[in-house]
Specification:
The structure holds two protein chains of two kinds.
Chain A (H helix, E strand, L loop, with lengths): L8 E5 L2 H17 L4 H22 L2 E10 L2 E10 L7 H4 L14 H7 L2 E7 L3 E13 L3
Helix pairs in contact in A: 1-2, 2-4
Chain B lengths: L5 H15 L2 H16 L4 H15 L4 H46 L12 E8 L7 E7 L4 E9 L3 H19 L5 H15 L6 E9 L4 E7 L5 E4 L4 E4 L18 E4 L5 E5 L1 H4 L2 E2 L2 E2 L2 H11 L4 H15 L8 E8 L1
Antiparallel strand pairs in B: 1-12, 2-3, 3-4, 4-5, 5-8, 6-7, 6-9, 9-12, 10-11
Helix pairs in contact in B: 1-2, 1-3, 3-4, 5-6
Classes of the chains: A alpha+beta, B alpha+beta.
Organism (chain A): Brevibacillus fortis
Protein name (chain A): ATP-binding protein
GO molecular function (chain A): ATP binding
């Protein structure tokens, strides 16, 4: 597989149907990447959670899905960006007890577990940026 | 399961069941379920396992195949919850072990043995209602056959009470050097406790000094549950007199000394409110009832008496200890 064959896609999240679009793009891309059905669904679910947080709390934002390669590994990277209210307490948002609250950031602990890498930056009043990566078992083709 | 993968085992159970539909395959499936749970196989993986097993067993209609996408999607949420519960479990275990360490540390604050004096027996029972106790007691060696005895109840239970207890212990240790009278001891402790604990907390205490030559007990109380004095000659129990504010409530509290002389076979019973607040079904035990139970233990050695009463009250409360329980029995022989 040659990562360069895939180009990143960015989906604007403005209405609920955009969440579905983002899921679809993520699922298609992960299928082409050769991820198994469960991983495909986990990637779609993670995109869903990230996009929903944007839709519900920030109003608008973007989801970018891009292939990445690092040290001979290939994977999918999902970046969620918004200029919403920001998450006041990231540690709390990543706490399992919080995940059922339905509040902003709920669902993040699940995303963190389903993905291989998880990164979050949030500033109150400025917005939130979440970057997650799922690595493929397949090595990059030279 | 040792010789083949659980995926193969699943296919086999499914194949056998589809041809015979026997209870033994269902039993096998249940056992496999336990095994998969122990290996943290998630619900969505099992959904996928089932879909793939079907493919191996025959022609799967397209609508069945597609339906698994819906099931997988739903199961992912259950999978997330499953993983989350596992992480809670780990955290819970970590906290349990921290509490076990705290409990051991707290245990080390309490005396490991009772002092020994001629013509005097001392018995102690001290039980925490939960892991960490809010009850404190200590014996402090003094000069010329005398020793100090402290029994205290710290408001609340658990960690805050335990932290407060260590402060009380160190304060008593250092004040103990000064050979203070019981009233002065409480006076100083009140200042120290008041300055160092949260205003919402306080400590009730009885502090006494027992002279093992004269068998004279001088004590003062700070809002503490009165104990009992058993007069052997009369066969009667009396409440220990005494009043004074609990420690930590008001900075200038004063305390008064009471003095009792024990005759042969007289018994002093010091306790915390866990003893008097034992519950008999829905009703708290009345003091008269407690005396009634104490009466039945009279004549035993001090430790036997303490043990006996604890067993009686535990039975009465149906083995459900609501509060930390401490009783010290001093018996002149």
């Amino acid at each position: 597989m040659v990562v360069a064959d895939f180009s990143p896609e960015t989906i604007n999240i403005e209405q609920e149907s955009d969440i579905v679009t983002a899921r679809q793009v993520g699922r298609n891309m992960s299928k082409q990447f050769g991820f198994g059905t469960i991983t495909q669904s986990r990637i779609a679910t993670s995109i869903s959670e990230l996009a929903r947080n944007i839709y519900l709390y920030a109003g608008t934002g973007t989801i970018t899905i891009s292939p990445i390669e690092r040290e001979g590994m290939i994977g999918l990277q999902i970046t969620a960006n918004d200029s919403g209210p920001g998450i006041p307490d990231i540690r709390q948002a990543l706490d399992d007890g919080y995940s059922t609250s339905g509040a902003l950031g709920a669902g993040l602990p699940g995303v963190r577990r389903m993905m291989d890498e998880f990164e979050i930056h949030s500033t109150l009043g400025e917005g939130t940026r979440v970057v997650v990566v799922k690595w493929s078992d397949q090595a990059k083709e030279e | 399961m040792v010789t083949r993968s659980f995926q193969e085992e699943y296919v086999k159970i499914l194949r056998d069941y589809l041809s015979a539909q026997g209870e033994d395959q269902l039993y096998g499936a249940q056992q496999l379920g336990k095994w998969m749970l122990s290996r943290d196989i998630s619900p969505e993986e099992i959904t996928d396992l089932h879909a793939r097993a079907l493919e191996q067993l025959g022609e799967v209609p397209e609508f069945v195949r597609s339906s698994f996408s819906i099931l997988t999607e739903v199961m992912i949420e259950y999978g997330n919850e499953h993983r989350s519960v596992n992480s809670w479990r780990n955290r819970h275990q970590q906290m349990e072990s921290e509490i076990a360490v705290a409990k051991a540390m707290q245990q080390s604050l309490l005396p490991s043995e009772v002092p020994v004096y001629p013509e005097l027996e001392i018995g102690v029972v001290s039980i925490a209602a939960k892991q960490i106790s809010g009850d404190y007691y200590d014996f402090i060696g003094q000069n010329e056959g005398r020793f100090g005895v402290a029994i205290a109840d710290i408001t609340g239970k658990g960690m805050p009470a335990a932290m407060c207890m260590s402060m009380v212990k160190y304060a008593i240790d250092s004040l103990g050097q000064m050979e203070l009278g019981p009233d002065e001891m409480l006076h100083h402790l009140n200042r120290i406790v008041g300055r160092n604990i949260d205003p919402s907390m306080f400590v009730t205490m009885l502090f006494g000094s027992y002279d093992s030559k004269e068998h004279c007990f001088r004590y003062a109380t700070a809002g503490h549950e009165p104990g009992f004095l058993y007069r052997s000659a009369e066969g009667k129990f009396y409440d220990l007199e005494g009043r004074g504010n609990a420690l930590g409530l008001c900075p200038n509290s004063e305390y008064e000394v009471q003095e009792i002389r024990l005759e042969i076979n007289d018994v002093l019973i010091l306790l915390t409110d866990g003893v008097t607040e034992c519950k008999n079904n829905r009703y708290y035990l009345q003091r008269e009832e407690l005396v009634h139970h104490l009466q039945k233990e009279v004549g035993e050695s001090a430790q036997k008496m303490a043990n006996g009463l604890y067993n009686r009250l535990l039975l009465l409360s149906q083995f459900d200890l609501l509060d930390d329980y401490t009783m010290i029995v001093l018996r002149r022989t």
